[in-house]
Specification:
The protein is 22% helix and 18% strand. It has 467 residues and is an alpha/beta fold. It has 2 domains: 60 residues, Alpha-Beta Plaits (2-Layer Sandwich), CATH 3.30.70; 388 residues, Peptidase S8/S53 domain (Rossmann fold, 3-Layer(aba) Sandwich), CATH 3.40.50. Strands 8-9-7-11-12-15-16 form a 7-stranded parallel sheet, with helices on both faces. A 4-stranded antiparallel sheet has the order 2-3-1-4, with helices on both faces. A 3-stranded antiparallel sheet has the order 6-18-17. The protein starts with 12 loop residues before the first strand and ends with a helix. Bound molecules: calcium ion (CA) (2 copies).
């Protein structure tokens, strides 16, 4: 048999081709071929094609009946918020106790104590029927704390917009971000290393971060659909899609991409997936942002200031039905880096704050979040500290997974409500909050009452969510 798809020669460009809402992609696919392009992925459920072409006139050539719009995704890669491992620790193996507090490194897991994970585990550690999709940089499938926790049959790489289920494809290559996230959600209680929030559930690696640290729209669309169609009830999205962060629906160049991602998110919600997203590490008030001076951020276009209008939404954090998570440190105050915003942040969770104890002078790595790591240079598994809203999101996703295990009939909307209702309200700090007085740029003002811009409905609580 001949290969199903030809490989274009030369520096090809990736395009998102939209069929009109509710229509098949058949006509659009024919137009792609006629325009000298190759369809690499067909998402008929949402009327989206991913195509590649070397034809410089592809975009105009493909326009016509059956095609709503088309856009190149060049320049629209979103950078994952960088979370470097600040300290690596060793773990001795010991007899598994079945109690998370018996894990060798549990005494360093202030985050699990803070959200009452040990108490929650007296009720449930999670159901293996619950699968949390980790849309990230891959998960190390050889990690001793994760090897039993991964739904391998549901894992895939979505790099390039096409699902690749080979195990190597969804393992980490240049970043262990996803490995750290997966450990927070579901590291095993096995007498080695750390305990996750929900060690009884499964995680699936859905690799959407490329080797340069960027998430392209075609990978995000593929990831949302993969998760939806492989039985995942929750996805964790530890990134902010920055070029879309302040993208506007009236931006003609980016509009088709914005719509494709919206369609993918809506589709996944319709299929019963709760999307958990981190708020970002820029200490930005997401409710009151006016000028985006940071995107696109993959270096392909000059950075330009653009005035933001009310037509703009953040994706995925501000998409409807998405649970957006800010970060707190061990004192349960907003982490110095965490973005915030009334009406945007839904809940908060431990993401670490390495500077609050020191006033910003010297970081204290033990105030970050300890989880599973993978050294991509030496190819070795381990444990280490990272901080970021990327570390907060998986605590919320893990608590959602426990809540769903305890109450399997919850719809995504009801699960989101449960997460908020069982959160512990945290009050706004008075006045201008600045946890790092020695450094400038970390001032922030919290607005609202029981539900506020720093913490949303409050800090997620694993025990409240399951009892
Ligand atoms: Ca463990
Ligand atoms: Ca929300």
């Amino acid at each position: 048999m001949l290969p199903a798809r030809a490989v274009a020669v030369g520096p090809d460009t990736t395009f998102i081709v939209l069929a009109p809402q509710g229509h098949s992609t058949a006509k659009a696919a024919a137009r792609v071929a006629a325009a000298g392009g190759v369809v690499v992925a067909t998402y008929d459920q949402i009327g989206v094609l991913v195509a590649r072409s070397t034809n410089p006139a592809f975009q105009t050539a493909v326009a016509g009946a059956g095609v709503d719009s088309v856009a190149s995704t060049t320049g629209l890669g979103a950078a994952v918020d960088d979370d470097t491992t600040v300290e690596v620790v060793d773990s001795a193996a010991q007899q598994a106790t079945g109690d998370p507090t018996g894990e060798p490194l549990f005494s360093r897991q202030w985050d699990m104590t803070q959200i009452h994970v040990p108490q929650a585990h007296t009720v449930t550690t999670g159901s293996p029927n619950v699968v949390v999709g980790v849309l990230d940089s891959g998960i190390s499938s050889t990690h001793p704390d994760l090897v039993t926790q991964i739904a391998k049959d549901k894992s895939a790489s979505c790099i390039g917009g096409v699902a690749d289920t080979t195990e190597a494809a969804w393992n980490p290559t240049t970043s262990d971000h996803g490995t750290h996230v997966a450990g927070t959600i579901a590291a095993a209680v096995n007498g080695v290393g750390v305990a996750g929030v929900a060690p009884g559930v499964k995680v699936a690696s859905v690799k959407v971060v490329n080797d340069d640290g960027f998430i392209y729209p075609e990978a995000a669309v593929c990831g949302y659909l993969w998760a939806a169609e492989h039985g995942m009830q929750i996805t964790n999205n530890s990134y902010f899609i920055d070029p879309w962060e302040f993208n506007c629906r009236n931006d003609e160049r980016q509009r088709p991409v914005w719509i494709a991602v919206q369609r993918a998110l809506r589709y996944s919600q319709g299929m019963g997936v709760l999307t958990v997203a981190s708020a970002g590490n820029s200490n930005v008030d997401l409710q009151h942002k006016f000028v985006d001076s940071g995107s696109p951020n993959d270096g392909s276009f000059p950075v330009e200031d653009r005035t933001i209008t009310g037509a703009c939404l953040d994706l995925p954090a501000e998409a409807p039905g998405v649970v957006t998570v800010s970060a707190v440190g061990p004192t349960r105050l907003k982490s110095y880096y965490s973005s915030y915003g009334q009406g945007v942040v839904d809940v908060t969770a431990p993401g670490g704050d390495t500077r609050f104890r020191t006033g910003g002078a010297v970081s204290t790595s033990t105030d970050a979040v300890l989880s599973t790591t993978f050294n991509t240079v030496t190819k070795t598994n381990g444990w280490g500290y990272k901080q970021g809203t990327s570390m907060a999101g998986p605590h919320a996703a893990g608590v959602a997974a426990l809540a769903l295990s305890a109450h399997p009939d919850l719809t995504p909307a009801a699960l989101a409500t449960t997460l908020e209702r069982t959160a512990e309200a945290l009050p706004c700090p008075a006045g201008v909050y600045n946890p790092v007085p020695a450094l400038s740029g970390y001032e922030a003002t919290c607005t609202g009452g029981d539900r506020n811009g720093f913490y949303g409905a409050g800090e997620v609580d694993a025990y409240n969510a399951v009892r």
